[in-house]
Amino acid sequence: MDWQAHVVPGQAPDGSPILSVLGKRTYRFANGKAALPDEEEQVPFIEADEYWGGGKPETDSVRLESDLVAYKPMTDVILIGKAYAPAGKKAYYLDVGIQVGAGKKVLRVFGDRKAYVTGSGLAFSEPEAFAEMPLDYGRAYGGKDEKSDESLMYAYPKNPVGRGFVVKNNPKAVQDLLLPNLEDPQKLLTPQNLVLGRFERWKEWPNPAGFGYKNRNSHPRYTLAGLPPDAWMDAQAEKQKVPMLNLQFFNGASTGLCFSPLRGDEMV
Questions:
Q1: Which has the least CB within 10 A, 54, 103, 132, 227?
Q2: 84 CB contacts (<8 Å, ≥6 apart)?
Q3: Cβ contacts of 62 within 8 Å, gap of 6 or more
């Protein structure tokens, strides 16, 4: 099966114009065997971002990002899939992981849970049993809090499309709050650390856990989206304080799954 090819104009790290020739080929993996080209299906180039759910960037997590990027300084490793309970049964929680070469990332996957108010504070319901669970950022920690303050809507900068984010210990905000299905097993949410208290503390709270693409409007990714070098120079000449585009903005992989260029012979 021949490679698919696409030509994309863009800019190199030094700002000079480049014309990149992109190649894409689909491989099939089998346990314990080398990856081989898929002779039955070749995934076409993705020309525009695609989203889960209703397809809205402000509310839904990214399923696939556009392939048409002229230069990425790092290699993105993206896993689009689900966690399955072992032996065809159901589980209340389990750990899943991905490893590429020496790089490894593990998530703890919970069944659906909610927070609720008790006479002595807050509590979490027991996880519901599940057979499978999607691994996208819509089920990771984050989301929007529209109930802590009647006149304000808070969005978690690290993942505005997730669940479990709450700013104030307001019964209206906490009662029946959906908790994340995906968490970092080293930094789990608890009833004691669920509520921020003040929105300004958001940087202290957990990084969202997932294996898919991180939305372009999530922190810190959006901080890298400045102007291209030529436009930045024009802005500087007009004494406008605008950051220059950092090409790592185009790397959308999860924390821990963005690598220096891979050789191609890594164990997956």
A1: 54
A2: 131, 132
A3: 49, 50, 51, 52, 136, 137, 212, 213, 214, 215, 216, 252
Number of other residues whose CB lies within 10 A of the CB of residue 210:
28
Q: How many CB atoms lie under 10 A from the CB of residue 254?
A: 24
- Compute the distance between CA of residue 79 and CA of residue 95 in angstroms, rounded to an integer: 15
| C-alpha span between 80 and 210 (Å, rounded) | 10
Q: State pLDDT tens for residues 177-206.
A: 999 999 999 999 999 999 999 999 999 999
Report whether pLDDT(34) > 90. no
Q: Is 241 helix (H, G, I), strand (E, B) or coil?
A: coil
- In the numeric block, which tokens belong to residue 91? 């589980």
pLDDT at 154 over 90: yes
What whole-number distance in Å separates Cα of residue 46 and Cα of residue 23? 12
Distance between CA atoms of 12 and 148, rounded to whole angstroms? 45
Across the chain, mean pLDDT equals 93
Q: Please tell me what DSSP assigns to residue 46.
A: P
Q: How far is CA 23 from each of CA 2, 20, 38, 134, 173, rounded to the nearest angstrom?
A: 10, 10, 15, 29, 48
Task: Provide the pLDDT for residue 1.
Answer: 64
- Give the DSSP letter string of 170-195: -HHHHTTEEPPSEE-TTS---TTTSB
